[in-house]
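Sample entry follows:

:::
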Amino acid sequence: MRQGNYLFTSESVSEGHPDKVCDRISDTVIDAYLAADPYSRVACEALATTNFVVLAGEVRGPESVTEELLIDKVRAAIKDIGYEQEGFHWETAEIVSRLHAQSADIAVGVDAAGNKDEGAGDQGIMFGYAVRETKELMPAPISYAHEILRSMAAARHASPALGFGPDAKSQVTLQYIDGKPVRATSIVVSTQHAESLDQETVRELVRPHVLKTLPEGWMCDEAHFYVNPTGRFVIGGPDGDTGLTGRKIIVDTYGGAAPHGGGAFSGKDPTKVDRSAAYAARYLAKNVVAAELAERCTIQLSYAIGVAKPLSIYVDTQGTGQVDEEKLARVLGEVMDLSPRGIRTHLGLNKPIYARTSAYGHFGRPAEEDGGFSWEKTDLVEELRRALA
């Protein structure tokens, strides 16, 4: 984002939002295959509507991952989200699978053979971003929007009688002065709720989750604190609105504070650079900022299908860099192998770690011991400092 004085807004959606339900389902399928064979190939889309789910896409993996196994795992995912409603229930929903074998034409271009290294699964451009606005080095508006909903979801799972439903959205507008966030000017939260709750009751249930998320003194005035602006939100999730995999790509990344290459993440195994290279770009940008080489950093990578190495590495530190950007781009390509195989090996991506990424953002989350969110590590800091000394 630019320097100067301005307002900036980002939104998040909960795990029970219909599109996020589909992202969770698609990544549940990915995890099932990678748990059985870490080199499985999967591209899975999901559609969810009133008590009905469709899986579609291409797979190459072990026969032990049966249609029945996948349907059981999808039901478990819907149950975990919390859907036990008449219009969408984990136990009674009809689930249909139309997954089929991966195209041989794609496989021949992507697979390693002879002296040919494994190629990118598709052409495309991917972006990574980091900024010194939060301890996670994420843009503050999307970080706070995610955290409000994550806090509400934790309360819902711990106390179902509270009255929150699984489907929710948040929107945070922050005021920036001299390029730095200083306070919220408006907060919007829409949450599915029990029929017995009125709008004012829901408002007061939401309030503590907003207050504990924002820094002290940042809360907007009452006139700009909007909770369920339409007044009622009882019917929600796929019963209220059809969901599809991959429709919340800005929610998944930086809330609009940085460019987006256009490709969704969920439902794609890590040979697909839409996912793995976007994770690598975030990893590199975060390490640049963590190494104090810039206050903010945007990185773009580009690929061609069947070609191993990126076609370009672009770095933009938006006037905050401590080193030459051309040199920095060259060094980034040296400290990390940015081929699809190199990214997966460096970040350990051939693991069943993806269902957990499907809500509340793929970035700004703590790296986990089993390899989840490995792209959030800052273990390149010293190497970058030495290379650029």
In short: The chain has ten helices and 13 strands. The longest strand covers residues 164-177. The two ends are 27 Å apart (CA to CA).
